[in-house]
Every structure is written in C-alpha cells, then in structure tokens.
Amino acid sequence: MTQLIWAREGRITEAMRQVAETEGYTPEEIRDKIAAGVAIIPINKGRSIPARGIGEGLKTKINANIGTSPSHFNLEEELEKLKAAVDAGADAVMDLSTGGDLKRVLQTVLNNSPIPVGTVPVYRVIGELLCQGKGTAEMTADALFGEIENQAKMGVDFVTVHCGVIQSTVKTLAGCERVMGMVSRGGAIMAEWMAIHKEENPLYAQFDRLLDMCVEYDLTLSLGDGLRPGAIHDAEDRAQLSEMMILGELAKRARKAGVQVMIEGPGHVPLHRIAGDVKTQKRLCDGAPYYVLGPLPTDVAPGYDHLVSAIGGAIAAASGVDFLCYVTPAEHLHLPSIQDVHTGVIASRIAAHIGDLEKNLPGAHDWDLNMSKARRDFDWEKMFQLAIDPELARSRRNQSEDKERDVCTMCGDMCALKSYTRATEAEEK
Amino acid sequence: MTQLIWAREGRITEAMRQVAETEGYTPEEIRDKIAAGVAIIPINKGRSIPARGIGEGLKTKINANIGTSPSHFNLEEELEKLKAAVDAGADAVMDLSTGGDLKRVLQTVLNNSPIPVGTVPVYRVIGELLCQGKGTAEMTADALFGEIENQAKMGVDFVTVHCGVIQSTVKTLAGCERVMGMVSRGGAIMAEWMAIHKEENPLYAQFDRLLDMCVEYDLTLSLGDGLRPGAIHDAEDRAQLSEMMILGELAKRARKAGVQVMIEGPGHVPLHRIAGDVKTQKRLCDGAPYYVLGPLPTDVAPGYDHLVSAIGGAIAAASGVDFLCYVTPAEHLHLPSIQDVHTGVIASRIAAHIGDLEKNLPGAHDWDLNMSKARRDFDWEKMFQLAIDPELARSRRNQSEDKERDVCTMCGDMCALKSYTRATEAEEK
C-alpha cells in the first residue's frame, strides 16, 4: 500500500493528517491532492518521521544534497552536513555518496535524519564497481534493481531513477548542437551502459519491476532528467523535451500502479525560459510535482551559484515548481563543506519563500508583514526571530557599534523612519 | 555645456566615443541615445575619468554605495571600500558619508575614484547641522543649493535630489496604509523640513536653479524616489506612483534645459510587480534611464539581502532597468564592511549580467558560452579567468583535494562529462 493508493480509496492516513496540519488544509483536501497525483508525501512505509508534502498548493520545499566522494570521505562530516541542512530548514536530504562504505553512510543518514531521505541508487552500484577497478560495463540490470530494493528495505523515502535516458532520447541528444552534452551523472552512466551493451535502459524496459518495489515500500519515484542542460546555451532543446515527454508517460504509469511520483528538472536555463519550462512540465506530466535543480540563469558565477540558483529558483517556484534542490557556493568547484550546506539551504529557502509569496500561500505574506512591522518599531529581537537565518542576523548586528541603540550604523541619527515620524508630528501641529 | 546639449547639436564628444567603443556601438548611435535622453554619461566637466554610459541598449551598470556614518568613521577604510568596489567591477560609486569631515571624505573619494562618483548633497547639510547640535529645522534652501554647487565644483558626477517629495505627494502618502512610511533618508529629511516650515520642497520649487548648476558643470541629476516602498506590502501604492509622475515631469524639464537625468526606483517590491514597475517608469519618464535599489522581493532575509536583491535586480534588469544600486549583506543591519562591498558588487553584477543576457546585448551570451566550453574541456585556468570573481573561484578550487586533477571533488571519476564521452565513443563503435 502507498499514500496514493490509500488516498484513491478515500482513506485519510496519519501522514495526510500531519501534512494537512502543517500546510493549513483539511485532511480531505490533502487526500484529494495525493489521489490526483498533484502532491506526494515521500515517506517509506518503514520510516517514522514527520510527514512532509510536496506539490500543488503546498509550501515550496527544499532538498539539500549531501554525501561523500572518492576523494573526500568522512562520516562525521556527513552527519554534520545533515545536521546543518536540517537546522537551516531543509525539507529533505539526498545522500549522494560515492566514496567510502556507502551502505554504512546511507544507514547512518537514515538513522539520523528527521526529514525524508532520497538517493540515486546507481551511484552505489557504480561506486562499488569503481572500487573494484571495474566500470559501467560490468553493471547488470539485476544489480541495479537489487540495489534499489536494498535501499527501499533500508527505509529510503525517494529515489532518483534515470528512466528517460533511452535509445530514442539519447539519439535525439546526439542530433542536438549542445556545448555540454550530458551533465547528469546517473543519466550519463545509463547512456554509457546502453552504448556498451547495445540494450535499452533497464529502468525503462523493466519499469513495472521498479513499480512493484515502490508499491511494496511506498518508495516515491523521482524521475531524473538525465538529459538536462548543463549550460544555458543547451536549455530546452529537443533532447530535453523528448525526455520530459517520456517522463510524463512514465509518471502516468506510476500513478496508475499507485506509485507516488515527481519529475526532475534543470539545471541551466535562461531567465526567460524558466516559467515556460515549468508550464510545459506541468502540462506534459499531468500536474506531477516538479523538482528542479537551480535553475541557474547564467553559467559565469562559480562560487556564487547558490545566489544564481536563488534567482532561477524564485522564478521557478513562482511559476509553480514544488520542490527546489539547493545549489551551494561550491557548485562547479568542489564537494560542498558544512558551511556551504548551510548557505545553500538558506539561499533556496529564500527562493522558495518568494515563490510562496507569489503562490499566495497561507501565512506567506504575514511573515514579511511582521518583519516590516518589527523594523518600523525598531524591535531588533523580533527582527532576529523572524529572520530566515536568525543567528546570522543577530551576530552581524552585534558586531556593529550601534548594537545597544535602536538605530543602526547605516544611518545612525539620520534615520528615515525617525525623520518621517517627526514630519508627521510636525504636520499635525 | 553638457553631453546632452552637445549630442542634441549633433556633436560627438570624446566621452561619447569612449562609450561607443566599450559598448559596441558607433559614436553616432551613442550620440543619438544621449540626445534622446534614453542614455546618459554621468561625467562632471571637471573630471578626467573614462566615460561610462547608462541607458537603453547599454550594458546594465552597477553602483556601490560607500561612506561613513556618525558611529563608524575611518577614511582609510572608505578608501579600501572604494578600491573593493572598483576591483569587483562597480561602474559608479556613491559617497553617502554622514560621519566625520564630510568634505574631506568626498574630496578623497573623488581624487581616488576612476569611476563616476555620486552623492546625496542633503546628507552633508544635515550631517553638519547634527554635529552642531542642530537639526533639519535649521536647514535653509540656500544652504542646500550652496552645497550642491560646492559638490558640483568639486567634481561630483551625479547627485540624488529628492525633488518629488512635495506637498501633494506627501499628502498622498499620508492617505496610504503603509507599514513603513518613508524609508528614504533624503526624502524623509525633505518631508520633515516641509512639515516644519510649511513650505514647498525648494528642490522642486526652485528646480530651475538646480538645472542652471547642472548645465554649468554637466552634473547629472538622479531624481530620488523619496516615497519608495520599504516593505513589499507598501509597493506601488498611490504615493509611489504619484511621485513617479512628478519625476517624469521634472525629467522632461531637465532634458529641455540640457541636463542629463535618470530616475531612481525601489526598493521592496513583490516579484510579480517588478517588470510592471519598470515598464511604468519608462512610460511615465519618457524612457529616462532607470536606477533601482534592489529591488528586494522579500523582507525576511536580513544578512542575505544581496542575494534577495540579485533576484529582484535580475528581473528588473531583464525588464529594462539600466542601473542597479547594489545591496550588501549588511543591509538592514549595519554599515557595510569592505568584504560586504565586494560581495554586494559581485551579487549585483550577476543580476546585471542576467539582465544583459535577456537584453541580448553584444557579447553577453559569448561569456556564458565560453565558460561552458571551458567546463566541457576541463580547462580550469580558463574557468577561473572567465569567472565573475576569478580569485574566489580559484581559491575555492585550490582548497579541494582534487585540485591537481582535471575532475573535481564533487564527482571524481564518476564524472558525467567523462561517462558521456565514453558513451558516444562506444556508440560510434
């Protein structure tokens, strides 16, 4: 049984009740969104964490990618990254580890995460082959499905599977004049495997096998966009759209089987294409929740891609994106540090909140209004409490000379709010 | 004589020639933009710095505000801020000092700035009154005009004057249900003065006196938006629009007198109102260059307002804004530090470049394309050179374990670009 099957049968689960309460809806409204497939609750049947909903009419959610790599592996640091992500307000975390004892890392993340955990199972399959001096050629379909099932048993809440990287879409890609080709690790692995074995992608060819596992564990599918653009030059070409059409078909099959599903999106996208991309996804995938990485509307700012991603993410969320995968300041340079995780989550939360303002979600405008009232009243304590990163706001203010006064060092006594108050008082005389 | 008068007479100045060269236009095209008032070259006739153009079809420019305050005053630090702004790529700097020996600070900034320098002259008038234990009530119109003339003589390239804060617009403001009232320092000072003296704003009442000074020194006017919103709740109300209409009338009078003029804009604006605000300004002010602060599409992120401002600034620039005033991470908390100046300029430059991509300006797309090609080719040196902040990108990469390899610590050997290359090679076999 899955949340989707229960919803379709009219039943309201505890998870739906929790989501209803945090989002300001009735349990029936949440149930109907789940039943229609426009919202999901990624929670493995073996997990006991607070349920979080992703989808239409719900608060825009944030995912933080953590994980080791072959040249940077430290389990303690991963746990600190997990804590940093949760503390900064992430709604989900993906363990994308590719270095060290991958099963142990994932088990530790699952044991310690109070938020849904996602993975890309093919990473572990390939990661272990690489450790043995082997490569993608030696991967078998059974090993891949076996790993997905293992992870479902361990309690993983959602998995990214690159089912849309198939013979036809890869051929379409070959005919596109891309600068960057493929930039999705999982997608490129599947393409390499298919090219070597001259076979169809097993995740596509045996999609029903995947669906059976998902139903058993209520494992949510995140249909990966292996053909996403890695440069704004490459955005929204035939390759990207041909894959999205396949993902739309697969999403339909998943829902029919009772499997919760969301769709992944780009990536590098020019500003004026972001809203259109979201509308196209919603159309082609029948309103399935959209989970985007970025998007990044320029390629030239390594070191600031969290900021670039917040620009694209705000517009994406305002246009209907449901779930933002964060991008950290380390993107395009190296594996993120603990501080990068914190900064990345906050940047994405800013984008998500701007999206929520535009979606006119319950409570979104009150947050800004209350902050502005606190500002007007020089109520610094309240400003800190309301700040998206209270600790940072407080510590910055406390480093300044005017920390004990009501004004700040920007204007001191030449404060506009005070001048205007005097102006209105003089006016009334 | 001013650049505008020369342009209108058909003459091409050295400044126009310089702008034409850096922007990729013919000198005649630049002259015609200046003559039409849709572009300006803020350069005092007494200054010898490279000319920079601001306006339609030209690269989106960035201003960095620096300056002392009564509780934070250090001339050396101001010079370092100036250097940080210039090094990070600012196109103009405003000395907004309100603490210490203001004339000396301004003279030092002018002597050391290779980019146009702007000021808000009323700050010095009030700053010196505050030092004498006096206040706004003691300001005289003659002192204000005298200060503007002093600064024009010193070589200031552009001044913000709050000419639109007049009896009628302040009355409109009083009827609006704002949370924040007035948040413009200069605007609030004028409102307070008017309320105390029961007189019209002298900058409006004696606007021709201002224009005469501007013609003499080719001082560019930046018509300040004293009634700009200080909370997204307050954006685009009748007060803001009534002031913009006045500024449009004054811009027309300025151009008629041969004075170069731009219009200042907000501030705190919800995402969906940004594009409309720009279009309204262009309509009401006959295409005069638009110079906005931010805009900030949410109020809740003190400590990250550079990022919030980059979100709003990218959309504003994409919608036609010509000149972005940076916002630093210190906004709403304290006076910016040297590091804040650097971060603020880079954040604004990212927004400006995204705007330039959307404006489809010469060379804008090539930058991203070249970066993506360098990424595809694992050409790290070229990536650093092309990065918007080369030093940061280089130093971050150099801190990582894989700095000597072609790959990065994010993926190591599980690199999508490498997998896809192997895939295409296998495909060809």
From TrEMBL, chains A, B:
Its EC number is 4.1.99.17. [4Fe-4S] cluster binds at C408, C411, C415. This is Phosphomethylpyrimidine synthase. Pathway: Cofactor biosynthesis; thiamine diphosphate biosynthesis. The gene is thiC. It catalyses: 5-amino-1-(5-phospho-beta-D-ribosyl)imidazole + AH2 + S-adenosyl-L-methionine = 5-hydroxybenzimidazole + 5'-deoxyadenosine + formate + L-methionine + A + NH4(+) + phosphate + 2 H(+); 5-amino-1-(5-phospho-beta-D-ribosyl)imidazole + S-adenosyl-L-methionine = 4-amino-2-methyl-5-(phosphooxymethyl)pyrimidine + CO + 5'-deoxyadenosine + formate + L-methionine + 3 H(+). The keyword Iron applies. Substrate binds at N65, M94, Y123, H162, S184, R185, G186, D225, G226, L227, R228, E264, Y291. Catalyzes the synthesis of the hydroxymethylpyrimidine phosphate (HMP-P) moiety of thiamine from aminoimidazole ribotide (AIR) in a radical S-adenosyl-L-methionine (SAM)-dependent reaction.
